[in-house]
Fold each of these.
Amino acid sequence: MITKNYINRYRDNIIFEQEGDTILMSGYEPQYCRYGFPNIYTEAYKAYCDVVYEVPDGQPMPLEKFKEVVHEWRDGTNWIMKLFGPLVTSDTDTINMFDPSGGPYIAVGMDMAHFGLEGKVETIKFVEEKVVLTVKK
């Protein structure tokens, strides 16, 4: 088992304990944390495609491009954002970012080498006041 301590800017002692592909994170104040959830574009993209196909010779942009354009702010001129942005929802069953007040910010895809640990974060879950990170080495 690898154990590493991280002192954040509020002098909280964050403890990382890694065993294999699992890292337990403790020492933060749960009431002072932010969480992030991935976006779900299914409904918004379907509605966008339905509108575009109604235009003669209309071809929708690929989903990956839509994911960028639907969030672009252009002084209120982005009709895609205005019409379809409200249809983008969050997958609140999946956590992709965890940020306790004072740090450290942890996100899916992040390399844990910064903390002296191994692997990139694949999942973030909570179990009994601890954050459980699953990593891929």
Amino acid sequence: MAGASRPEDRPLSPHLSIWRWHVTMATSILHRFSGIGLYGAAVCLAVWLIAVAAGPEAYAPVGAFLATKVGMAGMYLVVAALAYHLANGIRHLVFDTGAGLTPQDADASAWFAILFGFAAPIGLWALLTFGG
């Protein structure tokens, strides 16, 4: 191949120092992290279910851990990751139809997904605490 450049002569792909940070970039990264977190949450759910099935003496340490601040923060993060991943997944399904692809629409839906990820666990807590 005449004129083909060598790999070391090719330009490097853009890096974070080159690109201006924007919210749609953050949602892409958060979507990946929330997906990874949900895999870990699935393992924790399996451990919880095994402890429940094993009886009260096996469940006691798991229940005690979930009642701590670390356990409650973990449950908040799991619900937040699930809510964010769901909202961002729906956002991408809408993108697949060809709608919402303008920069303004993409930014607005990105902010909605992020805010929904924060608000959904709080709303669920309020519903479980104060709901009838």
Amino acid sequence: MANIRLHPIKALDPVSVNEARIGPNGGLELDRVWALYSADGRWVNGKRTAAMHLIRAAYAPDIRSVTLTVPGDRRDIPAMTFVFPGDTEGAAEWFSMYFEQSIQVRYTREGFPDDGLATGPTIVSTGSLEAVCKWFPGMTLDEARRRFRTTLEINAAGSGGTVESLPPFWEDQLFAETETSVVRFKIGDVAFEGSNPCARCPVPSRESQTGVTNDGFQKRFTELRRAQLPSWAPADRFDHFYRLAVNTRVPSTEHGRILRVGDPLTR
């Protein structure tokens, strides 16, 4: 495994870690455990407002605090540090000031996954992100990582004692041809069930630090994803081709186990 990236606050910046524990809902501990809500009970995230992209979240090395800033904001929103994950009330006041509306910050150990049925980590290969960078000249690998916001990034896999580098979209092998089936595999000692190709939202079409939309991004991505769909991908699982990465489930028997950078993926 090449990278593990937690997104402790849903829709905000990630933090890279060398290891992470499987949490009580099958996701990673501390991943997306804070979520922002408006007064009407709806999520406040990048799908809803591009203003999310302007907020920077920097975490202490032990992820016990987070510092929130808005560089260049004309209102001079102050940088503030909050105890994480406990100080939801203080953070709510800061977010309310920034968004100029009442914001609630909610915390749950189980996290707030986008896919309520496949609540495990999302998985993408380095090769897939590199392929997307070629589709959009000027996009760096780190920018692709920030836009697609996957939790686990893999660059090699093994079977029968051999290890291979992964071509683009290799992870399309990790979901089955029908919704009722899963593909079982392991990363290190942790068992996974591959569920489905991950549908994307407007967020990848925007520059991650500014929120500026790249015109035609979704159309070009969809066309090239369709044209370059590998032979091993179950095409019937693509009702549209604006999809990248794999959603997973993690059996309850695996909760508490640890994933580490360098762990091999085996099938």
